[in-house]
């Protein structure tokens, strides 16, 4: 995708979702880190329902270590992979206390050393909690980037991230991340995307093929 088309794509999505933002409820960097860790293979809506009570019960890293693992597991039981995530939360809290004075580190490299925190989670935390420009590639961002021709279908998540970083102005990285998520979550869905009303259909080979197939099916029914 050339620079002109990329600019048009970014501006169009910005017009569609001017209020795009992080939808995970949190009050500080620590809660955001926990929320993003919980969100892996789980919807933000479910995470917010669980953290509403979780963040009232546990305020500090030490609070998570003061209960048996089984109790924490039960507190997040509605979350997918809750056993593994509960174990990672306690390991993360121990490391945050022992190595970072009880505070979530601001450095990307230090964040990725925390149990359960990968590159995507670290990007979300540094950008939303510490205002460091970053583009976190989740399933929505990956799908939209590939459908719109920003990245190739065979690109890895890291390759998608690098291409977005090259093609999007650095000062727009964080907001573009949110807008691409909203575009993928509410418009360009994995199933039943809104191709028929998409202002960026021209960029999407998959969408054009889907619309062509729908047109042929409609014609066959009416003839």
From TrEMBL:
HhH-GPD domain: residues covered: 38-186
Protein name stated in the entry: Endonuclease III
EC number(s) per entry: 4.2.99.18
Function: DNA repair enzyme that has both DNA N-glycosylase activity and AP-lyase activity. The DNA N-glycosylase activity releases various damaged pyrimidines from DNA by cleaving the N-glycosidic bond, leaving an AP (apurinic/apyrimidinic) site. The AP-lyase activity cleaves the phosphodiester bond 3' to the AP site by a beta-elimination, leaving a 3'-terminal unsaturated sugar and a product with a terminal 5'-phosphate.
Record's keyword terms, sorted: 4Fe-4S, DNA damage, DNA repair, DNA-binding, Endonuclease, Glycosidase, Hydrolase, Iron, Iron-sulfur, Lyase, Metal-binding, Nuclease
UniProt gene name: nth
SMART domains in alphabetical order: ENDO3c, FES
Cofactor(s) recorded in Swiss-Prot or TrEMBL: [4Fe-4S] cluster
UniProt xrefs under Pfam families: EndIII_4Fe-2S, HHH, HhH-GPD
A GO term, aspect molecular function: endonuclease activity
Reactions performed catalytically: 2'-deoxyribonucleotide-(2'-deoxyribose 5'-phosphate)-2'-deoxyribonucleotide-DNA = a 3'-end 2'-deoxyribonucleotide-(2,3-dehydro-2,3-deoxyribose 5'-phosphate)-DNA + a 5'-end 5'-phospho-2'-deoxyribonucleoside-DNA + H(+)
Family statement drawn from the similarity comment of this UniProt entry: Belongs to the Nth/MutY family.
Cofactor note: Binds 1 [4Fe-4S] cluster.
